[in-house]
Amino acid sequence: MTFPAHRPRRLRRSELIRRMVRETRLTTDGFIYPMFVCPGEKVRTEVSSMPGIHQQSADQIVEECREVESLGIPAIILFGLPTKKDERGSEASAATGTVQRAIAGIRKANLKLLVITDVCLCEYTSHGHCGVVEHGAILNDPTLELLAEEALSHARAGADIVAPSDMMDGRVAAIRRKLDDHGFADVAILAYAAKYCSGFYGPFRDAAQSAPQFGDRRSYQMDPANAREALKEVALDLEEGADMVMVKPALPYLDIIRAVRERFDVPVAAYNVSGEYAMVKAAARNGWIDEQRVTLEILTAIQRAGAGMILTYHAKDVARWLKTC
Ligand code: PBG
């Protein structure tokens, strides 16, 4: 008989004692705030499926970055919308591209922020796929050089960390080699290592205008049913020289975050993606859930699962809430 000697409720009696025995403390130290850069000037358009998130021109990005810095959020990740798309996504590596210009602006403003860039082609290609397309197939090896050039142009513009999200095999090695060959040995790679083919990216594709124009991404992004394969993907990216790895999405893949955390001794990031954000916003707007409570619960759960870094559209709200509670 363990009752009544064991009464776990003793440690839940007051907020003071609950705080003392709390295992996970949600902090903004590992937060990464995603931002969408579009061409033009003074442009700031809210993404309808992502309330509070905007497509904005480089000048506006710099303004929001000031706010992000003042909230104590350490990092942003930039996604670019080009002026025009083509078969090979050429604007991705243009020195005058939207992401490159935004980085320059942030650097000029001397903000204390880590600048991470998403390295992918889908926002820049006319077909919306993350690689070179020939006869309806997404080609792996010819894509690697384009991704490496894109990463190099981000490094030249002043990025601290590049984050390939395309899921082509061998891209981390190709990017690492290219960066090292051009004197950017200090630019780190955060690999979207276990990126699933997920329905939760829907709102992002509105924001980045990156929906595939034919077919889907099942031939390169991972099958949601697979967990062991995620460990293989992570192992390969680390072998190729990734400094940090990411699991994406976050909430439906907490088991993967936990497994990666336990197996590998590198920083693990999780991407709390657009669809996860949109669900919370939509339900809160209907008065069906308490937005603050649910958001804090979700982010605490992602951190508890083992993510030291979290990419989240909620970053600014959470930073404000944590300051006042
Ligand atoms: C680009 C990319 C995507 C996301 C991040 N980088 C979309 C996709 O793979 O289709 C999704 C992020 C989100 O949903 O918030 N490859």
General description of the model:
With 325 residues, this protein is α/β, with parallel strands linked by helices. The protein has one domain (26-324): Alpha-Beta Barrel (TIM Barrel). The protein has 11 helices and 12 strands. It has helices at 15-21, 58-70, 98-108, 141-157, 171-181, 202-207, 228-239, 254-263, 274-285, 291-305, 315-324; strands at 31-37, 44-46, 54-56, 75-80, 114-119, 132-134, 137-139, 161-164, 188-195, 244-248, 268-272, 309-312. An 8-stranded parallel β-barrel has the order 1-4-5-8-9-10-11-12, surrounded by 8 helices. Strands 6-7 form a two-stranded antiparallel ribbon. Helix 3 packs parallel to helix 4 (141-157) and helix 4 (141-157) packs across helix 5. The longest helix is centred in the middle third of the chain and has 17 residues, at 141-157. The mean pLDDT is 96. Bound molecules: ligand PBG. Residues 118, 120, 122, 130, 165, 201, 204-205, 210, 273-274 line the site of ligand PBG.
Features:
binds ligand PBG, globular, TIM Barrel, eight-stranded parallel barrel, single chain, 325 residues, two-stranded antiparallel ribbon
Q: Any guess at the CATH architecture?
A: Alpha-Beta Barrel
Whole-number total of structural domains: 1
At CATH level 3, the topology is TIM Barrel
* Strand proportion: 15-25%
Indicate the low-confidence ranges by residue numbers: none
Mean pLDDT: 96
Strand order of the largest sheet: 1-4-5-8-9-10-11-12
Largest sheet: 8 strands, parallel, barrel
The CATH class, by name, is Alpha Beta
SSE-based structural type: alpha/beta
- Overall, the morphology is globular
